[in-house]
Amino acid sequence: MTLKIFYLLSSLLLLLSPAFGQEPNAHGGGVLFFKGRYYWYGEIKSGETKKVPNSNWENYRVNAGGVSCYSSSNLKDWKFESIALKANQSDDKNDLHISKVIERPKVIYNKKTGKFVMWMHIDSQDYSFARSGVAESDSPIGPFTYIRSIRPNGNMARDMTVFVDDDGKAYHFYSSEENATMHIALLSDDYLSHTTHEKRILIDQSREAPAIIKHNNKYYLFTSGCTGWSPNAANYAVADSIMGNWTSFGNPCIGPDSDKTYYGQSTFILKVEGNRNKYYFLADKWNKLDLAKSGHLWLPLSFNKQGVPTVTNKMEVSPTLIK
Fold this sequence. Notes:
CATH superfamily: Glycosyl hydrolase domain, family 43
Strand order of the largest sheet: 1-2-5-6-23
Shape: globular
Distance between the termini: 27 Å
Number of strands: 23
Structural class: mainly beta
Number of domains: 1
Radius of gyration: 18 Å
């Protein structure tokens, strides 16, 4: 058995180690709806959790496992499709090497090119690399071909998300300036690079884990504070246009443990297809001492007549793994 085959089989065993009926192994990711199915992409967290030596914060990590892909027609039952983007086992200078950081993968579809584009946070163990990686595929389930990592317009880039507006333009939201300030950059027409059209928002507010949704022609950006693996209060900001002025309004969560986002951290806002006002606030429940046992929160997100969002700690959907 070659090393390559052994690695592939080992990766699949680790990925599918939870019994059917448990949660998919997809963390820090997002969901794409395409031709009647939802595709969920996320970080593969498996293996032993270790603290990075000489870190001045709780820098716990597992070996980078790549990006998983699951699909569903109903948001409850999820089928494993593939390791959409594989980690690299042998070249420690490769962005996707298991010693590196591969976080916050998001996939968008480009109608002009017919390609699926994945953006992600690429970093070194000490988080000094601070770059954005991009990959491309002809299929929603991959395999994705990794292209490169960059610092958008020369800026540090860590936690991130991407968003396609109604006009087909795509935007990259990312934490920059040592996580002090959020940046928004307009992507090129093929979604594979950045234009110079960029804006700084939430200046000196130290926000990460961005998740965005458009509702009634307004843009809502949900973020977390920067406290490592430890939970904190969510925040939302609103704008009339993506490159316009953003105003912060506070915590959208209500009820017990709302100041800790119910022990979760935002990753994506999911719009339910066919239901104009149905949204879910997706979050990760990190287990910093055993990251492979981290869980998910899929919580209802609603808007009142004034456009004020509310996140409620009620699991209407519990995503489970099926055969």
